[in-house]
Amino acid sequence: MKHQQLLDLWSQSAKVSVFLKCVFYSMSYKAPRRFSNGRNFGVARQQDSVADIVPRRPYAPYANKGPNKWSRNLVWTASDGNMPRKNDNTYGSTKTQPSELGTSVSNQQRRSAAYGKRCSSVSDSRGWGSYDKGSPKSKECLCKFWKDGNCKKGDQCSFLHSWTSLPGMVMVASLDGHKKDLKGIALPQGSDKLFSASSDGTLRIWDCHTGQCVHTINLQAEAGSLMSEGSWVFLGLPNAVKAFNVQTSKDLHLNGVVGQVRAMTVANGMLFAGTSSGTISVWKATDSESDPFTYLTSLEGDNTGEVTCFIVGGQRLYSGSADKTIKVWDLSTLECTMTLRQHTDTVTSLLCWDQYLISASLDGTIKVWACSENGSLKVTNTRRQEQSVHTLCGMSDAEGKPIVFCSYQNGIVSICDLPSFEERGKMFSTNTVGAITVGPEGLLFTGDKSGKLRVWNLAGTKV
Description:
With 463 residues, the protein is mainly β. The protein has helices spanning 2-26, 107-114, 144-147; strands at 169-175, 182-186, 193-198, 202-207, 213-218, 225-229, 232-237, 240-245, 251-254, 261-267, 270-275, 280-285, 293-299, 307-313, 316-321, 326-330, 335-340, 347-353, 356-361, 365-371, 377-384, 389-396, 402-408, 412-417, 423-428, 433-438, 443-448, 453-458. It is globular, with a radius of gyration of 21 Å.
């Protein structure tokens, strides 16, 4: 029986590989182009700030562009370059901490870390705003009748007739096609295509000029995750990772996975894939054209639940799990150095900002972690929400100030300043938003549990 299952899995993988190869050979590479009227997903421009998708890597928020070239999603300015800030007097100080990372932190990132000039609504202290009180409630609520398309009050309605309450933010397009939960959204370098994967068993490829779906690939299995790095797109499947290059059309099947791949990330020239079995498979990137990824090892630790999310900070990999823990891995030795156990339900998302680790959970909390005197990570602030928290994503605004997107179970995405967590506005969806990806030129992509993929533009935002 097991032999037959392996044969079936191999057959399915081979079919997907052949189809992907045909698709990517048919997608001729186009040189990067600047703005043209056809590059806003086929809809009329809402305002002059609605930008095109430039075919380049959409660098994740707070990307570390220093020696650790595959590190993502952080500004890491701690003196040792590895651990979050120690929980000392600097926590309440407005002074910028000197960085010893050299060129690994850009001038723009330094301004973000120091938090620069603040708007009047944000406290001048270094603290994280009011403790244990959650985000302030907004008076703006979405009209449920307008959401269903049948509000008869029009402009006289006292509720919001918009998918966002943040001034300057525009929903550029809504891309329909997926039938179930979006598991990942990717924009690979060297392509003018947007990729999305869903638990409905399909991978869709969208044309950024028109907003039309140009290819739908039947994966014959549930997609668990999707991400891109450079020109590579990585797709997580049951017991497999598919890797394909949009420039060379190279298509690979990476062996060494046990279980459904739920999360992936890259760091230090390595690809990490977290699975439903609790293991983390690791591949090393090589210079070989014939074998660009070599299986390295499997990180098992003492996980008892599936790996749900990753983030990289300095020389540390952080993994969240359904067993309510966060594990800290040393990227040099690939050993687990500590296990964080403060959440009471599945850890759903992780984010590194400045010298802090931020975690979200189905237990309805967002926790901020800092390094204690003995070197361990301790919770310095807990933000309790009325809804379970599903996704965290960060970016910088036009003034270099960091903002964080927090997705909740009820379909609301709160947009808050850091470090105060003071709310700037909201985005609304009919279902829980489980995937948020930052694009170039202030573009943002969200995918919800119903399969709805939306494209947003935040005016004047730097990425």
